[in-house]
């Protein structure tokens, strides 16, 4: 099981780790630099000491004997502090020998054995730490090896103190840094906690609430704004579902009320057989209307949920128009409306889903029938030019005003009164028809003039004769719905 630490703790730990590594690296570098500088200073001092030995020898007369050189160095010992000094000449005679060094370095290389001075080195003599240097020099034609040294104890005490102070201070600084990191990350994440708390309070009951807006112009402000925009969309979707449900319930209540009123009246008095028959016919009509409404509601709900799957195939628009011609002819005749289907001379092949296109055509013809008075005319036309096929339904009925044309595709929107009284619509037909058209990558265009009639047309990309559904891509054309008033 992995341990899930809160983000502020993780941030603090990261900060602590990075800061700790950086601090320790810096301290190590500082110590090394200080140490290096001290060694350099000490080495320079040792070089100076070698040079002063050389100057001392140069100041002696050239024919000085070894014994008088040794005597002279006794003075050097006193005045120049030659505690860590040894000088040997090219013949192996000790010119000067400090007792302290002799114990540790009983032998010293002859000058002819040394090509050049070596690096400085460190050694211990009793409880003393010494930095030493061995260098060959030449004075008055004779060569000497000089070993000189410096006591390091003071330096080591200073460096040791420095190290100890760092050891004590570093953990304190790291603890302070960790605490600062924790408080900083806590402060930085406070708005997240506020957003989370508000988000927890939002439910379907208070979808109008919004997350706090932080005027900080940073990523968190961006996130809260994005989440608020998401809530706007969810609220709008939720509202439209609520409205849809309320409108659907309202639409269904009308036929149910009519049926129950009809039944109540019939049961109140004794009726003749003919009267009962009329009542049954009314009930049948209302039940049919309710069934149609429920069908459309279901289709729209499935479309919204993405559950309505269309199966595209190559089909002939003429066939669709002729089928609709047969289906609607009796109803049109009953309403004394002249009804014509004008198909194209040759097959008009398009790629489409037959059931949904049938439904679209039924909606348009149904509307033409309902909004055209007795004696009017309705026509269904299939046209084809080079690359395009058009299916249109035209009537000379009541027409639609420009304002209504802009809204007739909205759900439950109804503009005009049905001319076939009892056959009032629900305002859902064109919404469903538009969805079908969009699924076919096209749109429904309306040309209408109040009092003169309407023409609803849909353009499709026509496909060649030898093509099959699998060998063709669906047409990719999107036209905005054009609602414009024009004479029919
Ligand atoms: P309805 O079921 O009310 O007909 P629709 O969505 O099919 O719902 O149509 C919406 C509105 O558009 C209708 O209420 C009507 O006012 C108007 N309409 C649609 N087709 C026609 C038409 N051919 N002639 C006049 N008005 C129409």
- Provide mean pLDDT, rounded: 87
Uncertain segments: 469-488
> What structural class do you assign from the helix and strand content?
alpha+beta
Which percent bin holds the helix content? 40-55%
Q: Determine the number of helices (DSSP H or I, runs of at least 4 residues).
A: 10
Number of strands: 13
The ligands bound in this entry are: adenosine-5'-diphosphate
Widest β-sheet, arrangement of strands: 7-9-10-12-11-13
Distance between the termini: 75 Å
Which geometry do the CA atoms define?
rod-shaped
Backbone CA Rg? 53 Å
Report on the structure:
The chain is an alpha+beta fold and 488 residues long. Helices cover 52% and strands 17% of the residues. The protein contains 10 helices and 13 strands. The protein has helices spanning 7-59, 66-80, 99-104, 153-201, 219-268, 273-305, 317-334, 354-370, 402-405, 429-439, and strands spanning 86-89, 94-97, 121-125, 128-139, 142-151, 313-316, 338-342, 349-352, 377-384, 388-395, 444-449, 453-461, 483-485. The strands form 3 sheets. It has a 6-stranded mixed β-sheet. Strands 2-1-5-4-3 form a 5-stranded antiparallel β-sheet. β11 and β12 form a beta hairpin. α5 packs antiparallel against α6, α7 (317-334) runs parallel beside α8 and α8 (354-370) packs antiparallel against α10 (429-439). The structure holds adenosine-5'-diphosphate. Adenosine-5'-diphosphate binds at residues 363, 367-368, 371, 395, 397-400, 408, 413-416, 425-431, 454.
